[in-house]
Design brief:
104 residues; mainly alpha; 2 domains
Length: 104
């Protein structure tokens, strides 16, 4: 097998993957290198894909993002002050998806 055969096969295989799938693959891989505020924004966007209201506690988010409830609560309050989300008892309503996507 020649040296060019392997890269060509790789390109052909990558071409078969749809763009959204490829974007998701790379974005999820890069999350490990992002700050907690970016990871939280990404998590909120994923949860709010079907509906803008998410029924969840700050503690559950903290556990899923490997953080503490206090830090998550502080970041959520910052997001609320920036008019990205609206906090309620046991719920979070995403009111500015574009703002979350753009990193505040």
């Amino acid at each position: 097998m020649s040296r060019t055969t392997i890269p060509l096969k790789l390109v052909k295989n990558l071409a078969q993957i749809s763009f959204p799938s490829l974007r998701l693959l790379f974005s999820d891989s890069l999350l490990a290198f992002q700050g907690l505020d970016d990871r939280l924004a990404h998590w909120l966007l994923q949860q709010a894909s079907a509906t803008s209201e998410i029924k969840v506690t700050h503690q559950l988010i903290a556990e899923e993002l490997a953080s503490s409830r206090e830090v998550i609560s502080r970041l959520l309050k910052e997001f609320e002050q920036q008019n990205l989300i609206q906090l309620g008892r046991g719920s979070i309503r995403v009111i500015n998806k574009l703002g979350l996507e753009m990193g505040k």
